[in-house]
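Local shape tokens

___
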Amino acid sequence: MISSIRFALRSIFKSPGFAAVTLLSLALGIGANTAIFSLANGLLLKTLPVTEPERLVLFNWAASPETGPRSHSGHVGPVPETGERTSTSFAWAAFEQFQAPSDSLADVFAFMPLWRINAMVDGDARNLETATVVSGNYHQALGVRMIKGRGLEPADDQAGANPVAVISHRYWQQRFGGESSVLGKTLTLNQVPFTIVGITAEGFRGTGQVGEIQDVTIPFSHYLAVEPGDKNFHEPWAWSVRIMGRLASGSTLEQAQAEMEGRFAASYEGHLNFATENDHMRLRTESGALGLNEDRREYTTALNVLAAIVGLILLIACVNVANLLLARGAARQQEMTVRAALGASRWRLIGQLLTESLLLSIMGAALGTVFSLWIRDGLMHLFSADGSGFELDASMDARVLAFTVLVAVFTGVLFGLLPALRATRSDLVSGFHGSQSGLSAPKSRISRILMMAQIGLSLILMTGAGLFNRTLSNLREVDAGFEQENLVLFGMDATSVGYETEGLDQLYSRISDRLASLPGVERTAFSMIPMLSGGTWTRSQSIEGNDHLDSSERVLVANAISPGFLDTLRIPLLLGRTFTVADGPDAPRVALVNQAFVRKYFPDSTVIGRRLGRSINELDTTIVGVVADAKYANIKEEARPAMFLPHAQVSRARPGNFAVRTHGSISGLEAIITKAVREIAPGIPLINFRTQREQTQRFLTEEKMFSRLTLAFAVLSLLLAAIGLYGLLAYSVARRTGEIGLRMALGALPEDVRRLILGDTLRVAGAGVLLGLLG
């Protein structure tokens, strides 16, 4: 074997041009596949860096679409096998039931995400995007490694315990600059001071969704102090807690599910209304080794598409190298014949040629590993380009290296076997004469078929790139229903610094008036939910004259807005009136609806004056105007029936999301706005300052990613196709050397020979284009 490898290396590098082209083809194909697998590994396969993650269990529930809690947070998705809906959100009562001693579970713990917390360190208030509130045994049950201090303990989760917090390694570096004396420092969250007692190891990102990092962890015992507005947290009908456990030694997921099912049913008994007697909710268990899984599943389709694309790239690369080896095999036919005459068997020769192929593949994989790092970093940049703070551990580990080695071996055999069989099949007589020395040589059908396939695959990738780019272009031209230019957005939540919910509308109105007086500002307004932010608030409303409709057919998109909101965004008012300052909390309740609402519920009758309400007996809101349709949640949605309510009349409208219409450039406006806000409400951090165009572009991240990737991969496939055409030409010329010599001896000019060779190649290319168009 050592002798074969040594000879293979000499043979490869005796033709440096061939070696360079082959290694480049393989490096690009294998590198792209390794990069995509690195992403898949980080998104779908990497387990939590905790003690024995395979023993973790994640609880969720499944129920019919009509059944379930009336108030819940978190992702609700379908169960493909049954058509039910499922979620990982539970009531606090369920966690209390699950905590009782168990035979199948060694420990049970709970956690819940906290969003947009006001975090103050040494008087510097900043928005904390990701935090978590957990049960006291969270770090202990998970087996989290700490690099400084300790994790939370059950004693920290008791009434009257001192408020303590654990921070992530990232937060320690970013907010505290890696300060060694951080333990014992005070971190104030929504005006509640917490003492930092520990820092988690660098690899631990929490048990939340993929890409999230839980920067700060606090115990449930202090949750209501941080979020005093969540008055329904302990109600049995309000579901927002996630529950995980650790299996006892020798226990299984099925045993844990069977033991906890009765406890789950007891936690919601009497608090849910079922449509029929046979209706119920069932507990489900799955591995908790990855943490929460909902967002991971969302990425599966995108990864499958990318895997298919890079798989085509690798296939094209293999076709390339196979064509190059066929050309090289024609030139080495006499060598193979001499070796056979000296006693080498055909299988010995095939083994030698496969050794060369595997060496080429392994060297290409080594170079491709370097390319994969560049490709992976580019992909990660695309993932996080929307400013969402998405972070993924896509580092190269043993699993990725094993994948690369397997791909290298498979690729080496795939592109090397056919040329090896073909190069060793000739008999001794024809081999000694050499087919290339004859006056003519038969054309290689195999080489031409491979070239046709390669060109066809390249055309498919080019078409895909064109379609993705057309999709992106079309989405950028979609009419949002309001004017997006010169519109600046930011958010704030004054309850995080102690303001009562009842006074928020007055505070936000004062801030809005102050901003309107700034130079360069034309108008300002605020709303509960910013337009095109991805967030939605839906309400099932009883609609006068439509009480025969099912509740699911009366679901409206809702938003709470300030007077002047329509004028600021330039959403046309088509009928009736808009809101004024007179529509306060004590005034009669009013609403605006959109054209989609009118088309669905009142296509042939007057809508102004119609009433809405929670039930047919509580129609307490009067429709006073109709506005034009607009895109509410994202730019890709169809127009949906919607209603607007006065911000002052909606008690749950805690966040203030401001829209500022400017006369021109927004350069330096963030600092001016921040200063103006702090004059009225000091200590409130501004959240997510951006333009409306930037906000909209965040929802085109996937389209932009696929557009750029498919374009890059399509260009790569064209490059590989060019290399393949070179291989085909080289093979053709090598096999027709005698014929070409005779033609020139009889007077053929060089351009006649070139026309002859290129004519054959162009016919092959034309057939490949036809195959690609069919594909």
